[in-house]
Amino acid sequence: PVFTQEIYSFVVFENVALGYHVGSVSAHTMDLNINITYLITTGDQKGMFEINKMTGLITTASIIDREEQAFYQLKAVASGGTITGDALVNITVRDLNDNSPHFLHAVESVNVVENWNTGHTIFQAKAVDPDEGANGRVAYSLKQNPKNLFSIDEQSGAISLTGLLDVNDGSYQVEIMASDLGVPERSSSFILTVSVHDVNDNPPVFDQISYEVIISELEPVNSRFFSVHASDKDSGTNGEITYNIIEGNTGDA
């Protein structure tokens, strides 16, 4: 038997229903008394396709996923008695937007300090989409942006500051979304926890510029006769205060 073509080429979209008609092959022989039967011999190790042995119609036998395999090259054999002929069947799988962009983690965290300037990049978001073309291109946006203190580059996913962070807020929950450019659009998101840490940028300040105290010369040693008070706007150990006398303590009185 001789096929009508040496190479057949068909295109099928992924996720088509079982039994979908991919295409037909056909062979003929000069011997009119011979019935030709068809068989796929190579290129379909996973059994994704079937061929009607009498008509040569190729159909899907399983759900096809382009992300798993985008191209198949089958060998079809036509048998007429003890004589056979063969042809190649190329099947290209077209993409559907069946995958959402995927972040590596559902939750991420980053530590920042309160005095970082506007425009400082604090995090790099990254999502992947196994679809092809526009279906696999990802654009980034902020779904939740506390106090509008953050911005994200739509193409790169780089997150930067648009304002000064307040250490008194402790942390911010920023929700980052990745959307593909397919139709229909598919998207996913994750939460970035931004923890703000204090910088020791405030000196202790006394509650008065100067103090004046009068004591008796008979005041006992080690008696408490006065106290001073200072405060520090920094937090944690940066805001803890210790006191020392640095001058004027004649005779260590």
Report on the structure:
The protein folds into 2 domains: 2-94, Immunoglobulin-like, CATH 2.60.40.60; 102-197, Immunoglobulin-like. Strand 6 (49-51) and strand 7 form a beta hairpin. The radius of gyration is 38 Å and the shape is rod-shaped. It is built from no helices and 20 strands. The protein is 0% helix and 41% strand. It has strands at residues 2-3, 7-13, 21-24, 27-28, 37-42, 49-51, 57-60, 71-80, 83-94, 102-103, 107-113, 121-124, 127-128, 138-144, 150-152, 158-161, 171-180, 187-197, 205-206, 230-231. The termini are far apart. A 4-stranded mixed beta sheet has the order 2-9-8-5, with no helix packed on it. It has 253 residues and is mostly beta strands.
CATH C-level name of the largest domain: Mainly Beta
For the largest sheet, list the strands in their spatial order. Answer: 2-9-8-5
Taking the sheet with the most strands, its summary is: 4 strands, mixed
| Total strand segments | 20
Order of helices and strands: EEEEEEEEEEEEEEEEEEEE
Average pLDDT for all residues: 93
Q: Give the low-confidence spans.
A: none
Structural class: mainly beta
Oligomer: single chain
Domain Cadherin: 4-103, 104-206
Keywords: Calcium, Cell adhesion, Membrane, Repeat, Transmembrane, Transmembrane helix
Main location: membrane
InterPro entries: Cadherin-domain_protein, Cadherin-like_dom, Cadherin-like_sf, Cadherin_CS
